[in-house]
Amino acid sequence: MSASAVSSSGIPPSASVTSWLLVLLCAASGAYCLVRAGRAARDARGAAAGEAAMGLGMAVMAVPSGVGAWGPPLLLAVFCAAAAHALWLMRDGVHHAHHLVGSLAMAYMAYMACIALTATAGAAGPGPGGGQGGGHGDAHATGPPLVTGALLLYFAGYVLLGGARLVAAGKDAGVGTGEGGGPGGRPAATAAGAGAAAPNTAELTRACRLAMGIGTLAMLLTM
């Protein structure tokens, strides 16, 4: 679907641009998590793979032109599988609870998209173009306000807290690489360089999780 077609269908061009930016954000986050899964240790590989599936699934769901009638049911299956995977990972600790909440939130939105798609197909009836669309940009349904509101509050808090932590981590890294001696009398640059890779990787991981949190929040705001 072209940009002009999207505009003629009632979606403002600015909303289409925002949707494509959201697609790029989620796709980049998912791709990074996929690379991280390939390089991670065995005990961390499962969580990274789950985040990769979430990010790429979110990118597909955010496509403004839709992904066809098969899109919402397939995405619902993917996010339900991601939720089951996150639930399995929680045997190692409750720190995987956010993955579970994120997966359930996306499954909830995919389910509502399925309902909207069914309603649209029923209203359109058989004929050319009937039952088309099916992406987050074309199919919308209003879910239970209590559920949507609770998810909005959770992800708004997660984004604010995650952003604050990321900024604080950046400031701490800047202080650590400033002038002065490092541990054991080594220059600061040498002391910081020895462990630079791990903090940078950790900050990128936090940034990707924050980006997916922002994406989930943005999608919830459209419901």
Counting DSSP E segments of at least 2 residues, the number of strands comes to: 0
Radius of gyration over C-alpha positions, nearest whole angstrom: 20 Å
CA-based shape? globular
Largest sheet: none
Class per helix and strand makeup:
mainly alpha
Number of helices: 8
Give the helix level as a range of percent.
Answer: over 70%
Poorly predicted regions are 1-9, 127-133, 179-198
Cα(first) to Cα(last) distance is: 22 Å
Strand content: under 5%
Which characteristics define this entry?
single chain, 223 residues, mainly alpha, disordered N terminus
Structure description:
- Helix content is 74%, strand content 0%.
- The chain is an all-alpha fold.
- α3 runs parallel beside α5 (97-124) and α6 (145-176) packs antiparallel against α8 (197-221).
- The longest helix is centred in the last third of the chain and has 32 residues, at 145-176.
- The model is unreliable at 1-9, 127-133 and 179-198 (pLDDT under 50).
Secondary structure elements and pairings:
Blueprint: H1 3-8, H2 13-39, H3 42-61, H4 71-89, H5 97-124, H6 145-176, H7 188-194, H8 197-221
